[in-house]
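Field reference: sequence -> structure
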Amino acid sequence: MSNIFKVTLIILTISSALFAQDTTSVSKLVFANNDFGFRLFSELLNNYELTNILISPASITMALDMTYNGANGSTKQTMAKTLGIEELGLKQLNEANKTLKNTLKKPDPKVTINIANSLWADNGTKFKSDFIKNNKIYYNADLTKLNFSDANAPNIINRWVNKKTNGKIKKIIDKIGEDVIAYLINAIYFNGKWQTAFDTSETKPGPFYRLDGKEIQHPMMTQSGKYLYLKNDMFQAIRLNYGKGQIGMYIFLPDTSLSFEKFLANFNIKNWSDWTSGFTNNEGTIALPRFKIEYNQSLKDPLITMGMDLAFDDSKADFTKMATSNIKGNIFIGDVKHKTYIDVNEQGTEAAAVTSVQMELKGGPTKTFNMTVDHPFFYVIDDNKTGTILFIGIVIEPQ
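Structure field:
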């Protein structure tokens, strides 16, 4: 057995054929992105109302990595620590993002993943050449200059968002404040057909029990077959594949003896790795609610709490690698806005995410199982070739 083959066995879900020159950087980036995703999700759970939540770690981290190219000094250090990318040099980070983005493009004939990046700047902002070059080469983010004082400027940016998400997220910007000088935006669109579609004739109203114990009737999709499945003292879980199986949705249903909050507290990068490696093929039946969810959240406060405070500080932020010396005042991140959409039905799943970074200027398995997802649950959509988590969510009440 060759040494190269031995190495590829160690790198979790990374294909050596695709990442022959950069396996270490890509695997480090994927680990960092997934870990960041779980930490951010935990922050949202702990500090906001418990409701249907859906975030895209892949979208958020790519938008922030684009922004990271303009950070300097302590701002760069705190961003790196919060994102978990301290071990990656800037060039390594950028190359790994480019490789990852290209790898996720065409995972399966029955799966569409479109990832798009853009950079929008006010006419008066002059970016440094290296910042523009890096975002173009590694993130395929073209620089578009607009007159931000023009009332039509938000519409131009929102039309790009609408197009790149196939109309699922129509806008990310309501109005542009007078201190805003730039937006760095990532958009992800996902459309996957189930490996085995649910029979619509089998979809029937069934009970779903909310956290308060109240029963509601909701359309439940049902099918039987062989699935990757895991059951332990805390939950039972299943992976439903899209297309040929590279992309799939994990659904974790907590045991009713465990509070939902205590159940969610166990989701971190270590447990994720341990649990997903423990799934085995089992015959069984799954009943899953059909659901459609839209989510909209500013990530400013969660990111500050997680350690990225300097980047949002209007007097201490250091983004001197972003813009030229003609800028009088201090550049900082004014807000990070995140919008997501998901539609899970009998045919498959359609999902989208947009992340906007707003820059401102201021001076043990069982043989058989029956899994009825009839109470709040947690779900993840991931790519098992790269290990990238595309979406993390919970359903408190299907809509």
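Note: Residues 1-21 have pLDDT under 50 and may be disordered.
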